[in-house]
Specification:
Layout: E1 2-7, H1 13-22, E2 27-32, E3 44-48, H2 55-62, H3 72-85, E4 88-97, E5 103-111, E6 115-123, E7 129-140, E8 145-155, E9 161-170, E10 173-175, E11 178-193, E12 196-213, E13 222-235, E14 249-250, E15 253-265, E16 270-282, E17 292-304, E18 310-320
Parallel strand pairs: 2-4, 3-5
Antiparallel strand pairs: 1-18, 4-5, 6-7, 7-8, 8-9, 10-11, 11-12, 12-13, 13-14, 13-15, 15-16, 16-17, 17-18
């Protein structure tokens, strides 16, 4: 069993400033919604300001629809959903009554920068140092698809070092209540152990399906997620008997998870809680080298202390055979 508790409050000041300048959360407004529009059905939508984002996806994220009775609760929920996407600098809702009495809901957005390149410097309490850069590209093809490239070198306090290249491409499909997702990454580690140098290559691919359930007891839907993952680890050279060896091979598994994600964004920070419980099962008949079972439980919390400060925490418990 492994238990890890991480305090996420600390950030390098210069990195925080870069993120604040390039990626501030959206300013949102309902000031343009007329009081006489509340209680009326929505007859049509109008979207403007979206240069990259496809209109059909933006409307799906709001979960508003033609014929729906317009309420303040529905508008606040839609506004928060768009803010949580973290794709827009500003979001405004306005209503307009046409001469024939029809109600138009106008959604005005200003998109944020669609890519971010940042240097990466990290040092933990054990003295391990990581340096490199990270490239993040958001909202590819206007559908909230993302590309994440991380290249870094790690110098461990015990003398080991490694070079890593991690590429992740996430492609969600928004056909509520179901979501589909793909993820791929490749990690190449150059590891030195007792004068023995070896290159380990990890290729990982997963495909998952999730479904949301809206329950009255929860402000945010519960998500049931299933996934199949294929992971292959290859060693360039076999480890000598005198060195603690890493294991090469295939680790293919099925995963079932129950997730409650009630984390939201406001002007300068996150708030809310995240809970997840999952079971991952490896099967030989799926191509894995051996059967295995892993249980994961995770809690993330983002607590507002005052107008500017947060207390953030994370707890991860893993149990496996």
């Amino acid at each position: 069993m492994r238990i890890r508790i991480t305090n996420l409050c600390h950030r390098w000041l210069w990195l925080w400033l870069c993120c604040a300048l390039l990626s501030q959360p959206a300013q949102a407004s309902l000031a343009g919604v007329g009081a006489n529009a509340i209680g009326l059905p929505i007859d049509q939508f109008r979207v403007s300001g979206n240069i990259r984002t496809q209109e059909k996806y933006l409307l799906k994220w709001t979960e508003l629809r033609i014929g729906q009775i317009l309420t303040l609760d529905a508008l606040k929920y839609a506004l928060q959903e768009l803010r949580d996407k973290d794709l827009f600098k500003t979001i405004q809702f306005q209503t307009e009554r046409l001469e024939n009495g029809e109600l138009t809901l106008h959604i005005i957005v200003e998109e944020r920068r669609s890519w971010l390149l940042l240097p990466r410097i990290d040092r933990n309490s054990e003295g391990d140092i990581k340096t490199g850069f990270r490239l993040r590209m958001y909202n590819l093809q206007g559908a909230d698809r993302s590309l994440d490239v991380l290249a870094q070198q790690e110098q461990e306090a015990n003398g080991d070092d490694s070079d890593q290249l991690r590429v992740s491409y996430v492609l969600p499909l928004y056909e509520k209540p179901y979501d589909l997702g793909w993820q791929y990454f490749r990690v190449v580690e150059n590891t030195l152990r007792e004068d023995f140098e070896n290159i380990e290559t990890v290729n990982y691919f997963s495909f998952g399906v999730s479904r949301d359930w809206h329950l009255k007891a929860f402000s945010t839907p519960l998500t049931l997620a299933t996934a199949i993952a294929f992971e292959d680890r290859d060693l360039d050279e076999p480890y000598p008997d005198s060195v603690e060896a890493r294991e090469a091979g295939s680790y293919n598994r099925l995963r079932l998870a129950l997730i409650y994600d009630d984390v939201h964004r406001e002007r300068y920070r996150r708030f809310g809680n995240y809970y997840a419980f999952s079971i991952s099962q490896g099967f030989e008949w799926l191509g894995s080298d051996y059967d295995s079972t892993v249980f994961d439980f995770e809690i993330n919390g983002f607590k507002r202390l005052n107008l500017f400060d947060n207390f953030n925490y994370r707890l991860v418990v893993e149990v496996s055979n």
